[in-house]
Amino acid sequence: MPKGGDDVSKFPKEVIPALNRKLNAEAEHAEAEAQIARAQAVAAEIGQRDLERKEVDYLAGNKFHKVYAFNDPVTSSSVGSCISQLNIWTRTDPGCDIEIIFNSPGGGVIDGMALYDYFQALRRAGHKLTTVTFGMAASMAGILLQAGDVRVIGAESYVLIHEISTMAVGKIGELEDVVEFTKKIQNRVLKILASRSHKPVGYFEKHWRRQDWWLDSSECLKLGIVDEVR
């Protein structure tokens, strides 16, 4: 049987009409397949454009699309993980808005203050930092909550503030050194709280002495340690 490029004149006259019909049918079939392929390509392009448009719409609608969930105790490991991720965002999107969501029981004050200083460096570099607590920001996490340009608390969330705690073993002189160092850290924490609230240092000293001071969202807003309830 002839193929598309065959010369039908080589075949007997009585079979030429049938051959022509076959060749025409093959040509029509090839054209139909080409049309289907073109239609599929157009549909794929439209689908890709629609996907890209939806992504742009999502990012435009979600002001804080750089969101980090800090759901662990404050340790050298959790602080390191947070800083590593934020470093990626700041390199790939300089000046981007960043939101940190805390649901943390707190932890080490030295590790926490390292993260606090890092947050301040981000703000100085032009990043708008929003700190949020959904659940609880206890102890050191409550101090980290103060690091944001905007501080937010969930309506059913809590902040815990208390005196700095430490553990020490050694000679009397060594213990005295530890106590003095702990007092120095505590004074820094008190200044942070006072500077980001409506109350002086003495107010916090009075209310957290020898107790765990739990604050609900409305109390946090009234005290001034958050800017809004979400």
Characteristics:
2 domains, 54% helix, alpha/beta, seven-stranded mixed β-sheet, 7 strands, 230 residues, 2-enoyl-CoA Hydratase, Chain A, domain 1, rod-shaped
What topology does this entry show?
Layout: H1 16-61, E1 67-70, H2 76-92, E2 98-104, H3 109-124, E3 129-138, H4 140-145, E4 150-153, E5 158-161, H5 172-195, H6 201-208, E6 213-216, H7 217-223, E7 228-229
Parallel strand pairs: 1-2, 2-3, 3-4, 3-5, 4-7
Antiparallel strand pairs: 5-6
Helix pairs in contact: 2-3, 5-6
Describe this structure in words.
The chain has about 230 residues and is α/β, with parallel strands linked by helices. The model has no long low-confidence stretch (mean pLDDT about 80). The chain has helices at about 15-60, 75-90, 110-125, 140-145, 170-195, 200-210, 215-225; strands spanning about 65-70, 100-105, 130-140, 150-155, 160, 215, 230. It has seven helices and seven strands; from the N terminus they run H-E-H-E-H-E-H-E-E-H-H-E-H-E. The protein folds into two domains: about 10-60; about 65-230, 2-enoyl-CoA Hydratase, Chain A, domain 1. Strands 1, 2, 3, 4, 5, 6 and 7 form a seven-stranded mixed sheet that branches. The chain starts with 15 loop residues before the first helix and ends with a strand. Helix 2 packs parallel to helix 3.
